[in-house]
Structure formats: C-alpha cells, structure tokens
Amino acid sequence: DGLKENDKIHKLPGQPPVKFEQYGGYVTVDESAGRAFYYYFVEAQRSKESLPLLLWLNGGPGCSSLAYGGFQELGPFRVNSDGKTLHKNNFAWNHAANVLFVESPAGVGFSYSNTSTDVKVGGDRKTANDNYQFLINWLKRFPEYKDRDFYISGESYAGHYVPQLAHTILYHNKKAKKNIINLKGILIGNAVINDDTDTRGMYEYFASHALITDEVVSEIQKQCKFTVTESKESDECKMAKSIADYNTHNIDIYNIYAPRCH
Amino acid sequence: CSDYYTIAYMNRPDVQKALHANVTNIEYATWQPCSDVLTNWTDSASTIIPLLREFMTNDIRVWIFSGDTDGRVPVTSTMNSIKTMNLPIKTQWHPWYLNGEVGGYTQEYKGDMTFATVRGAGHQVPSYEAARALSLVMHFLDGTDLPDS
Asked: What DSSP character marks residue B39?
C-alpha cells in the first residue's frame, strides 16, 4: 500500500509544465537475490483510463530503456544541451498510450542486484523471466492497468527481448488458462531477428548505399560463414570485413547520413 | 550528441532524487546509458523467427519497422529475415503517407504481420523521425493500416 503514491514524480528538475502524471521507482524481481529493476512510467496525455499500456525496451544487450526510449526517443521530454533542463517532445508516444520504460537486466542504469554476479552475467532467458516478474509485480502496484490491452515495443537487441517476453507471457497465460497479462501485440524496430540474414544484410546495405564496393561485399558473401563466431571465420573473410570496417569507421553506421557528435 | 546530455542529466543528484532512483547508492559509480558492468552474456538465440510464427498463430499482432538510414541493423537485413519466413502477402509493397509526404514503405502479410520502413530514420527511429514514428505507433495500437494516400 502506498507504493504507487511514493513513486509519483512531482516534477523533474528543469522540466516544463505538463498535464500528465509520471512515476519512477524500483520493483523487486528476485527478493532472495536482492534484484530490483528501475522503471519510469508516463501516463497518457489524454484518456489514460482507456488507452493501452505500452512497454518499451532497448537493446544492447545492456542498454537502458530510460536513456534511449525514455529521454532520447519517444518519452515526453528530451534533455537540453546544458544537461540540466528538459524540453517537451511534441511527438511523445504517451499521446497514444500509457508508456512504461524499464531498465533491464540488472546492471543496466539504476537497476541493481545485491548478488554481484547478477549484474555481470546476463542472458536472454534470465532477462525474459526477470522482465515477466517485473511486469507481474508492477501490475500489483498499478492494478488499474491489470486488464488493460498490453503491447510490447523496442528496438535493436530488443528484437530478442520483446518476442522472448511475449513468449513468456503467452506461456504463463496458457498455463493458467486465463490472461494474466492481456498481451495484444508486439512492435520491433531495426531489430536483431535472425543472425545470418542480419549480418549478411548489413554488408549488402553498405554496398547498395555506396559505402563499400560490390567487390568487397561479394568477397564477404563468398568467404564468410556468419554462423560461426568472428574468431573462427577464415582469414579471407576477416580481410574482406576489415576493408568494410575501414570504409565505414568514420561515419555513424547507426544513421549513415547523420553528422557525428564531436 | 543527446547521449552526452542524458548522461549529464541522469547523474545529477537532484534528478536522481526526483526520479526516486539510486536510493541505495549503487556501487558502480556513474549512471551509463549502456552497462559497462554487464560483461558476460551467456545465451543469445540465433533467431527469433519461430517466436514470430507463434504470435501469428495466437492472434498476437506483429509489426516490424525499420529506419531506412540505419546501417547497424539495416532495412536490407530485416527484409531478408522476413523473406525467410515465406509468408503469404496481403498487400503489395507501397508507400505510406504522413502530412502529404511519403513516411516510408510498407507491406502486410496474412496472419496480422506488417512490415514498415520509416523514411529518413536511423537506428533510433523516434529520435530521427519523431512524427512518422508516432504515426506508426498510433496505427499499430489501433490495428489500422498505414495510410496509402
């Protein structure tokens, strides 16, 4: 009792005035290990009682949903260049949903564990289970969202986190023969989906956007297996990849036309 | 440079207090956008395509999007990954629009799966093309097609 009210964020430093509620705090995912995830939650700017609940995850693995999703991408505020004040994001996703950000797994951002190995060692399976436990416990704190339509979204390595969490939700719903969580859909962007095609496609894209030559991409496709670890690839493969690296290392491959930050 | 601004903001004691964060003074000194303590990733699936198929058979909506100027997990990779699924096509590849401009391109597949690009966006799509990203998520949540005119 009272946990939700304690988590209410009255105003962030340097924040412009807004009309929606925001919350932040910790939710325990494993009591015996002392593992807890930090969350930031922004209610919808209108019709919060009827709009769905949308969870956003970032990738890495090991990058923060608060850092990227929350304060650089789809959250209601972006940080000004002074590092002290915020401005409104006019296209924040809480125009369309109640949006939840969670720093996961333990060791990311403000999320922590009292068991030291927890923050050093991670993996897909453990992350999916912890994310599920986080949701179950978060919904106890915010019971008004328990039966709400629920969607999971994210980018990059969240192409793993999002489907794996969705799979875990479906598993538990089927086991309980009822909708413990009312999952309706997933949305993944620039997502790590399938290692082989993901990696091959990256070099094809470099070639089709005139960043590397057709000869280099052809050599990479011919010499590299993509299904083995980098160290086990042939010398010919490594050589071709090193030419691609040389040709792209001075641009930001996360947006090939963007200026770099100096 | 927004990464640097966010690091500066999140490491301010007054911000952490307002967020109710770092109440136990976490031992790794500074807040970072990506973890530098998490060094050992023990299991990573080589593909999540079987999970996408599972969702489609369980009436879970699946939308996949791609900023078309990202070279890290580029649109070519995503299109090739989807191609391996051999899904029946519901609507052919066509542009979608926002405010009289092409917002990107889209193709729908039978079984409630949609692929959409976001024109001019890099890896972090909502950062680069915020209005298009909001339009995309609104259509996703509503379960409506992206506008073709």
From this structure: -
